[in-house]
């Protein structure tokens, strides 16, 4: 039974490009099978899923569950990313299903806006550094925490959380940015599993001059470098509120909508702008009109199957 879950002057120094994979785990829950959505999607062996209940809306028959995935022996994190999951904790012991974005790097070409951002950053140096080689210091962590307090809000990125992130396999590499004089401009915390996954997780950068568009520059330079390195997808994290629109500078871009990867920006706008209290998306004509078929057809091509 199918189941729905409703050129520039660029410099790149390589310290090491190694794939990091979490330990495989077992869980005594129902196995699910993946099915092809397109010929380019490789079949992967089953992960195990748990459904973690959150607050229900009994009056409207909404019984929500957060879907957690656990890797089976022989699987790697890239399998979970491909299925629409992101890491659920720094140890990568579990993954959660969430609307997230990715750039198909083999198809991406810089747009006029991408090129404008890149021109503004001429002379900025970027280094890709493996975690074991990165100069991680208490002073740098303090700067990151100060940035997070200002950018994300109080208590979002506290010291314990940052320390746990940096200790876990979810961070395998850093993208380190400096200006022409060697002054530090920013750092991106990344997970790389070549060639399938580059996960752009957290970025910390200088906020004193917003006209530089430093955050956009770092993300675009990352995409450029990863194309050259032969990566297939750049994963940009979640896109669940309008605040994430800044990530949509790439074309093409895909988002996971619960049952497939979609490139329909109209569908994504609908998801970001339309609140549906007391309703399921798949029960609404507005959302179904943006899909390639009715729910039964969507289930037929879904990658999840009990059995």
Mean pLDDT rating: 85
CATH class of the largest domain: Alpha Beta
CATH architecture of the largest domain: 3-Layer(aba) Sandwich
Count of the separate structural domains: 2
Write down the CATH topology of the largest domain.
Aminopeptidase
- Give a count of the beta strands, DSSP E runs of length 2 or more: 13
The stretches of 5 or more residues where confidence is low (pLDDT under 50) are: 1-45
Secondary-structure element string: EEEHEEEHEHHEEEHEEEHHH
Total of helices: 8
What is the radius of gyration? Answer: 20 Å
What proportion strand? 15-25%
Strand order of the largest sheet: 1-7-8-9-10-11-6-12-13
Distance between the termini: 8 Å
**Which structural category do the helix and sheet elements fall into?**
alpha+beta
Overview of the molecule:
This protein is α+β, with helices and mostly antiparallel strands and 307 residues long. It folds into two domains: 111 residues, no CATH class; 138 residues, Aminopeptidase (3-Layer(aba) Sandwich), CATH 3.40.630.30. It is built from eight helices and 13 strands. The protein has a nine-stranded mixed sheet, sandwiched between helices. A four-stranded antiparallel sheet has the order 2-3-5-4. The protein is globular, with a radius of gyration of 20 Å. It starts with 11 loop residues before the first strand and ends in a 7-residue tail after the last helix.
């Amino acid at each position: 039974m199918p189941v729905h879950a409703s050129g520039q002057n660029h410099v790149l120094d390589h310290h090491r490009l190694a794939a990091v994979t979490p330990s495989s785990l077992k869980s005594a829950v129902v196995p699910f099978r993946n099915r092809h959505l397109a010929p380019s999607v490789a079949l992967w062996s089953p992960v195990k899923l748990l459904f973690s209940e959150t607050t229900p809306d009994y009056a409207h028959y909404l019984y929500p569950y957060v879907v957690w995935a656990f890797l089976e022996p022989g699987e790697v994190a890239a399998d979970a990313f491909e299925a629409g999951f992101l890491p659920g904790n720094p140890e990568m012991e579990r993954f959660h299903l969430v609307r997230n974005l990715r750039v198909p790097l083999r198809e991406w070409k810089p747009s006029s806006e991408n090129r404008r951002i890149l021109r503004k950053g001429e002379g900025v140096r970027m280094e890709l550094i493996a975690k074991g080689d990165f100069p991680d210091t208490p002073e740098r962590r303090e700067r990151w925490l100060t940035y997070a307090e200002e950018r994300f809000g109080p208590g979002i990125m506290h010291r314990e959380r940052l320390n746990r992130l940096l200790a876990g396999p979810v961070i395998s590499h850093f993208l380190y940015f400096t200006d022409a004089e060697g002054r530090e401009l920013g750092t991106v915390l990344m997970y790389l599993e070549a060639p399938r996954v580059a996960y752009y997780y957290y970025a910390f950068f200088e906020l004193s001059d917003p006209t530089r568009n430093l955050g956009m520059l770092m993300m675009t330079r990352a995409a450029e470098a990863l194309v050259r390195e032969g990566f297939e997808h750049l994963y940009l994290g979640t896109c669940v509120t309008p605040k994430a629109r800044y990530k949509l500078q790439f074309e093409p871009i895909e988002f996971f909508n619960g049952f497939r990867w979609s490139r329909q920006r109209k569908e994504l706008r609908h998801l970001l702008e339309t609140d549906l209290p007391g309703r399921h998306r798949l029960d609404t004509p507005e959302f179904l009109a943006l899909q390639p078929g009715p729910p039964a057809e969507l289930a037929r091509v879904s990658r999840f199957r009990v059995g």
